[in-house]
Structures are given as structure tokens and as C-alpha cells.
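Hi U.,

Before I forget, here's the chain from the pilot set. I'm dumping it here mostly so it's searchable later in email.
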Amino acid sequence: MKNEFDSRYILKIFEKIRQHGEAKESEYHLGGVKAYTDFDGYTVFIEDALVKLRFGFHNQYHFEYDSKDHLEAFEKKLKQIDADY
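Structure:
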């Protein structure tokens, strides 16, 4: 999947969710998006109800989604978080 995300953008969004979101156990919630890491902190997850973004080792990332519309809505949420915080 080609898109406009780069590793710095993904990490910036993750940090904004972590800083400004509501902490629930080991997850952070902001703007309909959830962010968390795996047990060792090497893999970052950012997701909503329909899309999951996994970002990890060597700056590789992978999206899981069923519909292009879901991905576009997810990207819009991330851009809104970036603009608002």
C-alpha cells in the first residue's frame, strides 16, 4: 500500500496520542484512535475500529483493513489529530 506516511509522521502521531490521549491500562485513546506498543516497545500499533497500523523494526509498517474507504477515514483521523495537537 503506497501512501504519504513516513516513519517520522507515524511516530509523531503516536506521541501526540500518548501525550494528549486518555490512558487506559497500556493504551492511549484520542479522537477515535487507540495507540499502544508491544511488550518490549519495539512495535507501535495505531488503530481504530476498522484499521490497524503496525509500525516496527527497520521502520517497516503494515496496514490491515477491509476497505479503501476505511483506510481513507483512518488517515483522516490521523491528520486531524496531527492538526489539533
